[in-house]
Target: Thiol reductant ABC exporter subunit CydC
Amino acid sequence: PPAVEVSGLVVRHGDGRAPALDGVSLTLTPGRRVALVGPSGAGKSTLLSVLMRLVEPESGVVRLNGTDIRELASDDVRAVMTGLTQDPYVFRASLRDNLLLAGPEAGPDELAEAVRRARLDRWVERTGWDTVLGEDARTVSGGQLQRLALARALLHDPPVLLLDEPAEALDTETAEALMADLLDATRGRTTLLVTHRLHGLEQVDEIVVLENGRVTQRGTHDELVGVPGYYG
Ligand code: ADP
Ligand code: ADP
Model:
């Protein structure tokens, strides 16, 4: 089954309001990356809230690996989907300790310390971060903070990675560098990237454009370039 299957979601935030999601469907198969894009107010946060079981849809179903999320405990949902938010939490400690301690992205499943250390070593080797690991995590830049949060999430090898506007708080240049790194580091991982920055999206397998609670376009970057509604 797909890792994540969203079908026919309808969500209304209040009686008499226009629906924030009006029949949204999308499928994330293992190993693929889907970007959910759309202007502010399109319904992106609402969709993530349904995935994280913070909001109950009026109708529609979300299945994780074939199981309706209503049949799963919240902890089970978090063990499958690990999120990266706009504003990652860091402990008052070194980068190394922030990586090794279970971050909020880790989910409830504690990973053996030896496994985490081995994965950290490999990651440090790849990124050359050995020189900065001793620095206080609260003094690093916004871009580095997001890389830290991503590394912390990846150390736990989550089956599904949710990236919620990871570049939102950053200036354009830093955001583009982060998105490039992030797309590089998540290659081959089952990922739902929610973003309104279109930089680098030629790398994802599918782009789903959400507007006013409805999917208005879907396809690869090459298919969507020039299509009205794809504001690339
Ligand atoms: P973003 O574009 O980053 O999702 P939003 O401004 O759409 O930011 O939403 C930020 C937060 O405020 C979200 O948690 C969303 O659910 C909430 N929110 C958005 N619009 C409203 C609203 N009209 N009333 C109450 N909460 C809202
Ligand atoms: P996006 O993340 O794409 O910016 P949202 O999901 O935050 O979009 O918002 C979709 C619509 O739902 C908007 O009209 C927003 O104002 C409304 N909305 C979002 N959250 C709330 C909320 N908690 N209460 C009321 N309205 C909300």
The radius of gyration is 18 Å. Strands lie at 4-11, 21-28, 33-37, 59-64, 67-68, 81-84, 160-164, 191-194, 206-211, 214-219.
